[in-house]
Please model this.
Amino acid sequence: MTLQIETLIRAIPDFPIPGILFRDITPLLADRAGFKATIDLFVDRFRDARVEAVVGIEARGYMLGAPVAHALGAGFIPVRKPGKLPGQKYSEEYALEYGTNTLEIHADAVGHGHRVLVVDDLLATGGTIAATLRLLQKLGAEVVGTAVLIELEALGGRAALDGVDVTSFIRY
Model:
């Protein structure tokens, strides 16, 4: 199944900057069978985890996280880039392969002890997910796992998430 999905992921060299090989999932999202199979991978893995909310990381984490939340009967919580959320929020800065950025979450997005699953499209250096986990820790959430479609193993992102259950379905 993952081999079929992998054929729908396009590699784009030198995007967004020279030296980066971008893994583009838009062909996968456009393919009815491939998109369904992808969501099914996540749902099958976490069906029995009693997930109360799926946390999706802007922006491609939304494309995977929202349908996973729906299929699991869970809520969906967006983690966004700065300036996108109204009201009280928490912020965390993180490093990318090619710079830094910041993520934010509403201060009341999830209650203490709520069981959450973190979903994103890709694990590279681990900075984005690590920042999201720090945000969820501030809220007192119980993270039942993190799940990504793609893991770029050479960048060592899993090590930045030491002690966290990380599921990846395609590894480069």
Summary: Residues 12 and 22 are 5 Å apart (CA to CA). The first strand starts at residue 10 and ends at 13.
